[in-house]
# Entry
Amino acid sequence: MGKVHKKTYDKGILAITGASGAVYGLHLMQELARHCGNLAVVISKSGEEVLRRELGIDFGGTHSTVQRRLRELARAENIHFYENDNLAAPPSSGSAGYSIMVVAPCTMGTLARIAQGMSSCLIERAADVILKEGKKLILLPRETPLSAIHLENMLKLSRLDVGIVPAMPGFYHHPVSIDDMVHFVVGKVLDYAGLEHELYERWSEH
# Structure
């Protein structure tokens, strides 16, 4: 594997949906905030529940309290949070100028609705906008086993140049912790986005 060239984006979007694997979304929040001047974050209601169950992040308090906590975890201040039912938020318009969107983890329901061009919430509308504007969309599905419907939807999106990066950690870098496996998957997303990182040791002849 060659060295990934350094690249940054002025404005990016991260969506966290209700698939298992909320830790991927949290780590990507931190990494994307480093590479984007402005990062919009949208978390679905089911995504909030998974963050609570898997990572112990309680969304029972005020939105400002939760958002402050997430900014602290991501160690970033350039994050702007938007409610998933707010279709008037900036990510819903192509004129807002977002260049990249990552959905991680991405439920198969979200993936299917994006494949069909549905825009019933901000996450789906933002993905639709990214597609129509010819920008970079990356989905991180976390589901197993996969049905023919799942595979057909992913193939349809792949043919539209959508990055499909499944949460499949590799083992040639000899992971010794869960963090090592998470970093591998997050690193693969950053690779697809063309962003420089040192999250895992790359394959070489040595």
Q: What stands out?
A: The CA atoms of residues 59 and 66 lie 6 Å apart.
